[in-house]
């Protein structure tokens, strides 16, 4: 007989157990098993008073923020509307069927109350789990940055006097209750142009050449499994090359050692980064920025620096025409010595069209730590470095694409630099968690396969031993 589902709502439900409704291999169940959130209470204890209204449990709030990014929910209001519809989310949050979901504003209030510290601790805890699972070897750090569109329209940009813009940004920092404003002062267009809805965001050009209010996310990922070990957030106009020391510092603090090699594209291959990495004993597998500039049309047909010999004892360069280029001055801003040939010699030189287009003659520069720089450039041009950069392209771009496609990385949800830091930390934490879950289940499968193999080998041995025993007959000759 055909059945019909009754649409009559039941007044009472017995035996509702959410734990039985969530499957055993549900990602949220695995997150719950892996990450002990008990530290949250200790971390935020000082941020709550001892009297007054009882707050929503901080662990529940943190889990709500994780759900927001894990499922890329469009807004906090939508998250709160969706929670009662999702049994798995309710189970994860520890809610019963009849529990009330709080107002969406508890999330923004909690962020303001907690600051960024709690999210950093959470990121570090998950990273430690990744280290424990053997997902980090600390050999190579792959570095890159990506722009994030701020939650501000281009129409909110106003041109104001530089002093007013500076004061607006300072006031924004004060409003945000003492979150450190460690950004370098904005220069260029950003010194006089500010978004009135999010003064922390600065104008930066995205793909397609449009300049919009933006932030920039900088990441260092370990070369073994792509686990993120360092995260930094700045305004969009910051040069990513300047963030490398910060990322290296974070990596060392969390992993306990510096990587053996740093892999990055040519934006990071600056003189400062090369010399610093060499001093710290790391291999520089970053493409050389100067090499890309040498291909500039202005330098086409001009003798490269390699065409000049350097006499270390006399500290002079010898040009292809045999003329000496002597040290002229130290350029403080650029941090190098400048060498120049005699103007009269250059003026009369037949090789001049292939050597220089400058009126004063050919000049060369040499860094005070040129030997370190030369070694760094040799390492950067090695086949191993090229291979690493190819791998970085896949690993790093996959990492950013995963963040954009699955966690809403490319658009800021909230306004202000410190809130953007929270967003970046939460997304990085979730990405690491997903790598951990993927590899933990793979590790369990491998361990089971190994165990089965051992059992079957042992059984095989046992079978052979049994076969070697013959029943002994009394008539057999001994
Ligand atoms: S132009 Fe000056 S530096 Fe260049 S090859 Fe001639 S003499 Fe030497």
Write out key terms for the chains shown.
13 strands; alpha+beta; 17 helices; Nucleotidyltransferase, domain 5; 44% helix; 478 residues
Plain-language structure description:
44% of the residues lie in helices and 15% in strands. It contains 17 helices and 13 strands. Residues 472-478 have low confidence and may be disordered. The chain has helices spanning 18-21, 27-34, 39-44, 58-70, 76-82, 87-93, 105-114, 117-132, 162-175, 244-255, 271-279, 289-294, 343-347, 352-355, 370-380, 383-407, 417-468, and strands at residues 140-149, 157-159, 193-195, 202-205, 211-222, 228-235, 261-264, 283-286, 309-311, 316-318, 324-331, 336-341, 363-366. The strands form 3 sheets. Strands 1, 4, 5, 6, 7 and 8 form a 6-stranded mixed sheet that branches. The protein has 478 residues and is an alpha+beta fold. It has 3 domains: 18-114, no CATH class; 121-288 and 381-435, Ribonuclease H-like superfamily/Ribonuclease H (Nucleotidyltransferase, domain 5, 2-Layer Sandwich); 294-369, no CATH class. The radius of gyration is 31 Å and the shape is globular. The longest helix is centred in the C-terminal third of the chain and has 52 residues, at 417-468. Residues 319-321, 323, 341, 345-346, 349, 351-352, 355-356, 361-362 line the site of iron/sulfur cluster. The site of iron/sulfur cluster has 14 residues, from α13 and α14.
């Amino acid at each position: 007989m055909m059945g019909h589902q009754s649409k009559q709502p039941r007044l009472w439900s017995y035996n509702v157990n959410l734990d039985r409704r969530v499957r055993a291999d549900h990602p949220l169940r695995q997150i719950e098993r892996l990450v002990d959130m008990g530290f949250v209470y200790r971390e935020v204890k000082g941020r709550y008073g001892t009297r007054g209204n009882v707050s929503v449990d901080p662990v529940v709030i943190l889990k709500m923020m994780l759900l927001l990014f894990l499922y890329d929910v469009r807004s906090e209001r939508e998250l709160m509307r969706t929670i009662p519809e999702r049994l798995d989310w309710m189970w994860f949050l520890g809610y019963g069927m009849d529990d009330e979901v709080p107002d969406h504003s508890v999330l923004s209030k909690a962020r303001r109350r907690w600051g960024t510290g709690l999210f950093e601790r959470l990121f570090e805890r998950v990273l430690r789990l990744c280290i424990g699972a053997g997902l980090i070897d600390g050999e190579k750090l792959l570095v890159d940055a990506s722009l994030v569109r701020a939650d501000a329209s281009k129409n909110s940009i106003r041109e104001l006097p530089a002093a007013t813009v500076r004061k607006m940004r300072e006031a924004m920092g004060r409003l945000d209750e003492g979150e450190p404003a460690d950004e370098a002062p904005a220069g260029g267009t950003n010194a006089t142009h500010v978004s009135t809805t999010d003064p922390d965001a600065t104008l930066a050009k995205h793909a397609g050449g449009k300049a919009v209010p933006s932030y920039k996310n900088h990441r260092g990922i370990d070369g073994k499994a792509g686990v993120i070990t360092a995260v930094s957030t700045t305004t969009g106009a910051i040069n990513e090359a300047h963030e490398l020391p910060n990322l290296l510092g974070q990596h060392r603090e969390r992993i306990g050692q510096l990587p053996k090699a740093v892999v990055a594209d040519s934006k990071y291959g600056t003189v400062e980064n090369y010399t610093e990495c060499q001093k710290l004993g790391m291999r520089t597998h970053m493409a050389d920025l100067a090499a890309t500039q040498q291909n500039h049309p202005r330098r086409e047909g001009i003798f490269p620096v390699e065409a000049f010999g350097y006499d270390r004892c006399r500290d002079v360069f010898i040009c292809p025409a045999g003329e000496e280029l002597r040290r002229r001055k130290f350029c403080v801003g650029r941090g190098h010595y400048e060498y120049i040939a005699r103007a009269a010699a250059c003026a009369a030189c037949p090789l001049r069209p292939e050597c220089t287009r400058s009126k004063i003659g050919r000049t060369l520069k040499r860094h005070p730590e040129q030997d370190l720089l030369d070694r760094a450039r040799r390492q950067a041009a090695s086949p191993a470095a090229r291979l690493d950069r190819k791998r970085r392209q896949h690993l790093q771009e996959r990492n950013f694409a995963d963040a954009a496609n699955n966690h809403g990385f490319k658009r800021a949800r909230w306004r202000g630099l410190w809130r953007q830091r929270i967003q970046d930390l939460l997304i990085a934490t979730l990405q690491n968690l997903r790598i951990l879950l993927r590899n933990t289940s793979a590790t369990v499968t491998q361990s089971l396969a190994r165990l089965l193999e051992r059992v079957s080998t042992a059984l095989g041995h046992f079978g052979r031993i049994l076969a070697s025993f013959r029943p002994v007959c009394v008539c057999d000759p001994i």
